[in-house]
């Protein structure tokens, strides 16, 4: 089945061409298509100016109008359409200060970071490859368009992108590019945390995470990379790095990577807050790290089920995996046990219980207070462990009974 995103992109190419403009698929989607990988998104480059693009399509969003980018929405699918441009003057080391629209595809492709990302494809499938991108794809090589020193100086994020492509594609980096990165690492100090983290996120989900992180480590980029530059970090061994490769869960990747950087520390939240992740991410990373570092993992069924009730299955399984990574111990058996225990438990949270706080208050005839939550949790535990059935009458009877014993 044809990818709906691709269909939308082709429709935009057609409309632009029929209006008399040039339009091409460019960048990552061309690279991925040639590698027989599913493109994440389709980017289009055109000689039509942003205002022309806006006039031509019914639904558009001026996403980055200053940089020539308009998002065109075709049947609900957003596709970025960018006017041919060159960038100049990277004074703030983050965004080009000025972009200049140009008339040719060739000039537009020359501003791109790596040869494999600097190819274009037209509607008829003709490939435009002015920098030997196809040959580099075949030879599995990451090479900058032009002189690596200039290109990394222009935008130091390209050094981190190089690491990202090493991890994603399992390619090698040219010697010149590697040497330039080691030489120019200090320029990374001005990068924004958000851009760095966005690249790391892609590295976590790559098959060869260790390759990219190894580049950043061996060239000592972390000493200049916000926010890591300010941290007192351990050196990460090759063995430890390798363990990042099979992880496909970004929360676990973050938790393990943080552990590798800073070890066991009470100050995790200080570090974590510098990464500008969502509060949900921070909560999950913290749970995984704290449980793995500071709590013995239960071995008996009763203790295991109590743990699961307290922390939930997701945090528990992640903690077991992180502990396994840290201690280099097998985890499959523990994961199987905890998963089985979780599935066996007839109730997993208070809302699964056949009674609620109101029922209890009514039955016991005592004003609400902290005792309600406590009692509900006691009942939850007993039902989860199979000591009590999840029946309303019986739970209320039991609730009253515990109440009288507590008060006698
Ligand atoms: P992905 O598959 O993750 O989207 P991508 O190669 O498409 O990877 P994007 O960040 O989406 O990466 O960028 C799209 C294209 O824009 C790149 O392929 C490249 O041609 C160009 N590009 C992106 N960032 C830079 C940069 N910092 N310097 C030069 N060119 C860049
Ligand atoms: Mg892309």
* Rg estimate, integer Å: 28 Å
**SSE run:** HEHEHEEEEEHEEHEHHEHHHHHHHHHHHH
CATH superfamily of the largest domain: Beta Polymerase, domain 2
What is the fold-level CATH name, i.e. the topology of the largest domain?
Beta Polymerase, domain 2
Percent in strands: 5-15%
Query: Which structural class fits the helix and strand makeup?
Result: alpha+beta
Which compounds are bound in this model? adenosine-5'-triphosphate, magnesium ion
Number of strands: 11
Helical content class: 40-55%
Report the top-level CATH class of the largest domain: Alpha Beta
Arithmetic mean pLDDT: 94
Count of DSSP-assigned helices: 19
Distance between the termini: 71 Å
What low-confidence regions span 5 or more consecutive residues with pLDDT below 50? Answer: none
> Biggest sheet: strands side by side, in what order?
3-4-5-2-1-8-9
Features:
two-stranded antiparallel ribbon; Beta Polymerase, domain 2; 408 residues; binds magnesium ion; Hydrophobic Seed Protein; seven-stranded mixed sheet
